[in-house]
């Protein structure tokens, strides 16, 4: 029951997501504020980090990237996270490539309703060749000016929850910028 805390340049590679499964969590301790307190993988205050070939079954958020540049998350499965599947904030930038985020549940933190991907506070992220499914409130959520989210060659489907403004494939608030290229939005309870 361990998580991974990363605060320096590193390359972490597992055999594959079905063979290497992280089931614990670590504290997210950063110079910048973070919406999540704990995650299965926490990348904070660093640069040049690559993580691939892992499964994350965290009792809290799946992955948190805060105040970190040149981060690449590839070939990851993030399943059953409480609150947020993947959280990126604090001016972080990077690539989420071939990730599968699914079956999230509502968390205890403010606003953490089981979103698949939450990007805010000036983060700049590209999501490519990925699947976000069976999550709650929003498949991908971008908020605050200076935040940029590009999603391409990705499927966002089966987003659910029981309120008026949820079940959204992609949600954008407070002047964030979002670009969708060759994205399939299907089966979402609310709008695409």
Task: Describe what you observe in this structure.
The protein has 192 residues and is mainly β. The chain is built from no helices and 18 strands. 0% of the residues lie in helices and 55% in strands. The model has no long low-confidence stretch (mean pLDDT 93). The strands form two sheets. Strands 2, 3, 6, 7, 9, 11, 13, 14, 16 and 18 form a ten-stranded parallel beta sheet that branches. Strands 1, 4, 5, 8, 10, 12, 15 and 17 form an eight-stranded mixed beta sheet that branches.
Structural class: mainly beta
- What share of the residues does DSSP label as strand, in percent? over 45%
Look at the structure and give the mean pLDDT: 93
The CA-CA distance between the termini, in Å, is 36 Å
Number of strand elements: 18
Count of helical segments? 0
The dominant shape is globular
Low-confidence stretches: none
Q: Please bin the fraction of helical residues.
A: under 10%
- SSE succession: EEEEEEEEEEEEEEEEEE
Largest sheet: 10 strands, parallel
Radius of gyration: 15 Å
